[in-house]
Amino acid sequence: RRHILKSMFYDPTYTRKLVKLKDGRTLSYCEVGAAGGTPVIFQVGLMGSSMVAVLFDEPIQLLRLGLRVYAVDYPGIGDSSPKPNRTLQDWPNDVLEFVNIILGPDQVFALWSHSLGGPHALAILKHPVLSKRISRATIVSPWLPFEDSTLFKTIKRLPPFVQKNVLPSLATTFSTSTLSMAGSVTSCGSNLQLEVAKIITSYASRQGQAGNRQMVQIALQEALPIPRNFQKPIFIFVGCRDSLVGQRDCLKLVHLLSDRGCPNVVFHAIEGADHNRVMGGDNLVRIMHSLLPPLAVEEKASDVMPSSSENAGWQQEGTMSVLKTPTRVQQPRRFGC
């Protein structure tokens, strides 16, 4: 398995693939999963690169989930061309070109994000053209820069120079998120996990740290885009032990989406999971099930429905336990937290 996993990182069938945009820039991407499966566009987090998608191939193949995952590198990450002064609002236009070229102009797809990929996913859901092609969206451990967030308030008290220059450098230098995710997704020993994390982060900083610093600056300086009137399912997952993204902030996002005409928002709080390990093991399987069309979920998913009457207000989406808006939520519903 070690040999197979490592070889995928260097196999052009899966990784370091390139697509050229109309303005001459290039986007690099990774493509894994079932051939002809439901297409999924994955938005990576800080210090991640498109190569993180290699970690998703094994569960997709073993469980025959029928997903084809495309992870696209942001400008300045991997082999994607830099785009100075880019904003969150620029990214959906790049993704629109990408899906038109790779999937075709009429193909619908599912949207998936983790961590700092969350604001990028929300910007895509807000795009007037691209949003119409999204069948469902799954947002995991999203970075949410709400003004009343304790972490965000602490950051905003720092001097502007520190916010814009020092903090991005520190965040990109000392980020351990990819190592944590590699440890949660791969079941091999720690040596392989370190190798995998190094491969993913090395590709993320292939052009230096400018692309990652740009992502941090976007996270700290830009208002969170909230889509309106998106009628398809939106799933939001957060770990009960997440020290970066609070359940209260995720529930605030649920209600903001509901207030803006998004009626099918589904919230999951996962027992024992932190910011990155929410993407591992059985949790990863739950997340992948949320990306499948409902009939496929009924066929593929194992039963993870918490028992009973104490879960009033929860409904069943395939075989998954969910709480739907616009029902107002007083406290987060959890898997055993």
Describe the protein's architecture and organization:
The chain has 337 residues and is an alpha/beta fold. Helix content is 38%, strand content 18%. It is built from twelve helices and eleven strands. A nine-stranded mixed β-sheet has the order 1-2-4-3-5-6-7-8-11, sandwiched between helices. It has a two-stranded antiparallel ribbon with strand order 9-10. Helix 3 packs across helix 4 (117-126). The longest helix has 15 residues, at 160-174. The radius of gyration is 19 Å and the shape is globular. The relative contact order is 0.14. The model is unreliable at 301-337 (pLDDT under 50).
Q: Note poorly predicted spans.
A: 301-337
What structural category characterises the helix and strand content? alpha/beta
Elements, N to C (H/E): HEEEHEHEHEHHHHHEHEHHEEE
Note the main sheet.
9 strands, mixed
The fraction of residues in strands falls at 15-25%
**How many angstroms separate the termini?**
34 Å
Which oligomerization state do the chains in this entry correspond to? single chain
The strands making up the biggest β-sheet line up spatially as 1-2-4-3-5-6-7-8-11
Mean pLDDT: 81
Estimated helix fraction? 25-40%
Question: In brief, what are we looking at here?
Answer:
The chain is 38% helix and 18% strand. By secondary structure, the protein is an alpha/beta fold. The strands form two sheets. Strands 1-2-4-3-5-6-7-8-11 form a nine-stranded mixed sheet, sandwiched between helices. A two-stranded antiparallel ribbon has the order 9-10.
